[in-house]
């Protein structure tokens, strides 16, 4: 914006002494206008990019091009539709006090032990995860942070290849909903809706931007403990190990209440990875309702382990307390790297790093490299 202003001055031959300095531009913009910057309305996903690239290809005949354009347009319409569905939900929640719309985002890579010295650049980092809940009804934001030694970022990966972990469609999240339903009978129904990846327009995304902005402002700021990241957010809760429940216990083992079933009550195969809408109901905990398109009807999947009526879900049988998730030790190499940096860190922080559980077996599904999608080193 400032560049545009300077160009305007130049084009209009305004005398240099009258041209405001850059900082004045920012100052006026910040203090005298109720304005802020907004991301563009149409954002692009991987699919959009691939459409764009293919359309630019000269070898493509006009007929093929037309097909591609039609596909691309229907993709854009679908993404717009999903965003509209979201807006409708939010609107409804504002007039219906019993409805709440929550949007979530898991930011996975906030590296810890960020020092200004050169050596630390090449050392493995302890990753901090930030889970953000954006409550559309009252516009409040809640951030929960934990480090990778407390818990990972998804369900247990081995359950099924059909499950899509990044998008919470896995069986673990469904068990979590069942558990919440049972614990809080006032919740009558939970709907989980998935937007098109890359077109999510998530308010929670703004939290990432906020952290990045704050960090850039604080030039040369070092990150000594996970607590330093928490300081950057206004409302932030640190999550301890005890908070991570082992929801898998609800469906694994013969005595478990539920079972992982892939066929609907109509005996049709259901694919969780392609579903866009999941529903669970207080009235009928253990039943899972799924849609693979917002236009279609719900498929019902019965997750009761026992098919006969007498053995089915009963409130009394539901475990009141769930076991806590197994700890996720960090690798020995990572622990070694972190400890090697302690001479540059105040002694008050040493115990935290020395007490991190480590293991020589790499049993983690968390990326070791710095391929996080939110922060450059
Ligand atoms: Zn797209």
UniProtKB/TrEMBL annotation:
Residues 162-223 form the DUF7869 domain. This is DUF7869 domain-containing protein. PANTHER family: DNA-DIRECTED RNA POLYMERASES I, II, AND III SUBUNIT RPABC2, PTHR10773:SF19. It comes from Dryococelus australis. The lineage of its organism: Eukaryota, Metazoa, Ecdysozoa, Arthropoda, Hexapoda. Pfam families: DUF7869.
